[in-house]
Amino acid sequence: MRIRCPYCGERDNGEFSYLGDAAPTRPDGMGAEAAAMHDYVYLRENRAGAHRELWYHGSGCRAWLVVTRDTRTHAIDDVSPARDVARTRRTGEAA
Fold first, then answer.
1. Cα–Cα nearest to 74, from 45, 44, 53, 43
2. pTM here?
3. CA–CA distance, 20 with 38 (Å, rounded to integer)
4. Is 12 helix (H, G, I), strand (E, B) or coil?
5. How many domains does the chain have?
6. What is the residue range of 80's domain?
7. What is the CATH number of the domain that holds 13?
8. DSSP-derived secondary structure for 34-90
9. Rounded to whole angstroms, how far apart are CA atoms 36 and 50?
10. Residues 68, 23: Cα–Cα separation, whole Å
11. Are 23 and 44 in contact (CB under 8 A)?
């Protein structure tokens, strides 16, 4: 599988580390309920099809990326810097 880094270009996935699902939003700090933190840490969906994932380009530019990938075929539809995705999430714009 090849991932197109927005900074370094197309690279082999061996240069990247997979973190997991990019969808969960961390509950608000110390005021969060224990059940909300449990759900955030341990519960993940295992869907077939298009899925947004966090990847870290450790052997390249060291950027965090949000990769939209089909889990059935491994076809990558989009790669965006995680900071841009987080910024649009905060401002309420479509990512």
1. 53
2. 0.79
3. 16
4. strand
5. 1
6. 2-91
7. 3.30.2270.10
8. HHHHHHHHH-----SSEEEEEEE-TTTT--EEEEEEETTT--EEEEEEHHHHHHHHH
9. 25
10. 11
11. no
Token readout for 2 is: 């090849």
For 13, the 3-state DSSP assignment is helix
Residue 38 token pair: 């449990």
On whether the CB atoms of residues 20 and 69 are closer than 8 A, the answer is no
- Residue 59, C-beta contacts closer than 8 angstroms, at least 6 positions apart: 14, 15, 16
AA letter at 6: P
Angle 15-16-19 from CA coordinates, rounded to 5°: 165
What the block records as the tokens of 22 is 């990019």
CB 13 within 8 A of CB 5: no
Q: Whose structure tokens read 């900074």?
A: 7
pLDDT tens profile 33-91: 999 999 988 888 888 999 999 999 999 999 999 999 999 999 999 999 999 988 887 77
Q: Are 81 and 64 in contact (CB under 8 A)?
A: yes
Q: Do the strands 9-12 and 2-5 form a parallel or antiparallel pair, or are they unpaired?
A: antiparallel
